[in-house]
Inverse folding.
């Protein structure tokens, strides 16, 4: 049995996803949350195998396999957030179930796509992006870039939210 938690801001979507999961053989919905605050205690109580979510910022803290169920999310951001699969909300339910079962992984990220994603980041954030995309453990990333794990989680959240400062960008471009 695959134990699944759902995070979605819309009550109707949460209810629909839970109904789909209950009807699927081998999958058991163990809870649903409407926001990141409600997700953390739910994860602690239920210890799911998979979390289906629509908020990439919530994926950073999840230790289970993550399936991003959202529209308009690119693969680089999903992989950076720690997702193992990405399913558009408009996709048929069998795509979502395949992603939950691990049958539909994220596609490979091209070097060009990674460079495009890093264009507006500072040097330290580019290093964080590259290491997370390569699958480096957060403790190792924090050590390399000289941050605590909590500070790294904050930087990751800022990168995902697109609120990364670029004031030092021109200087970094000429740094070598």
């Amino acid at each position: 049995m695959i134990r699944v938690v759902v995070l979605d801001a819309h009550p109707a979507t949460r209810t629909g996803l839970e109904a789909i999961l209950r009807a699927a053989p081998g999958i058991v919905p163990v809870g649903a949350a409407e926001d990141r605050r409600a997700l953390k205690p739910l994860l602690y109580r239920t210890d799911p195998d998979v979390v289906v979510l629509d908020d990439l910022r919530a994926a950073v803290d999840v230790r289970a396999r993550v399936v991003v169920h959202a529209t308009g999310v690119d693969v680089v951001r999903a992989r950076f957030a720690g997702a193992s699969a990405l399913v558009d909300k408009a996709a048929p339910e069998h795509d979502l179930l395949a992603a939950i079962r691990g049958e539909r992984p994220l596609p490979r990220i091209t070097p060009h796509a990674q460079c495009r994603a890093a264009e507006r980041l500072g040097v330290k954030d580019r290093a964080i992006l590259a290491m997370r995309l390569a699958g480096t453990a957060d403790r190792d990333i924090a050590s390399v870039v000289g941050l605590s794990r909590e500070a790294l989680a904050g930087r990751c959240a800022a990168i995902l939210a697109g609120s990364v400062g670029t004031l030092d960008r021109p200087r970094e471009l000429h740094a070598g």
Remarks:
- Confidence is low (pLDDT under 50) at residues 165-176.
